Amino acid sequence: MTLNLRCFITIIFTVLFCSYSKAQTTGNFIKASIGFGSSTSHYEEENPEIIDGFGFYTQGEYVIGITRWFSVRPYLGAIFTSTDEDKIKNPQGYKVETNAFFLGTKVRLCAPIPWVAPFVETGIGASIGSFETYTEYVNEKKNGVVAHIPIGFGLAVGRKNNIELGVSFYGNLTSKQSFGGFTAGYSFPLD
């Protein structure tokens, strides 16, 4: 088959069968996630040491499923990380720690694939808490409200795509660190 014929057949199948796909369900849901939290600094050096904080991450979302491939997701969560005291891994006096609550709104695009649906999401939000970053070039302790941009990707799995495995990253706009989580979640229908 030539390339043009393959493209034509792909377009026909996409148009004809996109209404039968079940990437995510429409309606309203509550999604709860829990996972492994991580925070890291934004610094760049000639010989960078990777200074990270590790800890606990949790998040809840109110899911407004507009279509099977697009949803709006207001979220609320918390992250608590601390730096390992191992002097070999983290030089003395260096640390990146985040203890914060965060909230905002994300939009999600989900591929229309049954049983295993990859997704990507982004939005805008705010973090409220304490952000400490101490490295050779950064000496910052910030308390209060910090704007962030969430970026996430993962897989929605299962017959109803209600189990999720993913990575969420929150880039702080005014502090010298970012945080995120490696999560597992479950969606509960409200309708």
Concise structural overview:
This protein has one helix at 3-17, and strands at residues 27-41, 52-65, 70-83, 95-110, 116-134, 139-157, 163-172, 177-189. With 191 residues, it is mainly beta.
List the helices and strands and how they pair.
Elements: H1 3-17, E1 27-41, E2 52-65, E3 70-83, E4 95-110, E5 116-134, E6 139-157, E7 163-172, E8 177-189
Antiparallel strand pairs: 1-2, 1-8, 2-3, 3-4, 4-5, 5-6, 6-7, 7-8
Count of individual helical segments:
1
Strand-pairing-aware structural class: mainly beta
What is the 3D form? elongated
Q: What's the count of strands?
A: 8
How far apart lie the N and C ends?
A: 47 Å
Question: In which range does the helix fraction lie?
Answer: under 10%
Strand composition percent? over 45%
CATH topology tier name: Porin
**Low-confidence segments, ≥5 residues, pLDDT <50?**
19-23
N-to-C SSE series? HEEEEEEEE
Characterise the protein shown here:
By secondary structure, the protein is mostly beta strands. The protein has one domain (3-189): Porin (Beta Barrel). The chain has one helix spanning 3-17; strands spanning 27-41, 52-65, 70-83, 95-110, 116-134, 139-157, 163-172, 177-189. An eight-stranded antiparallel barrel has the order 1-2-3-4-5-6-7-8. A hairpin with a 4-residue loop joins strand 7 and strand 8 (177-189). The protein is elongated. The model is unreliable at 19-23 (pLDDT under 50).
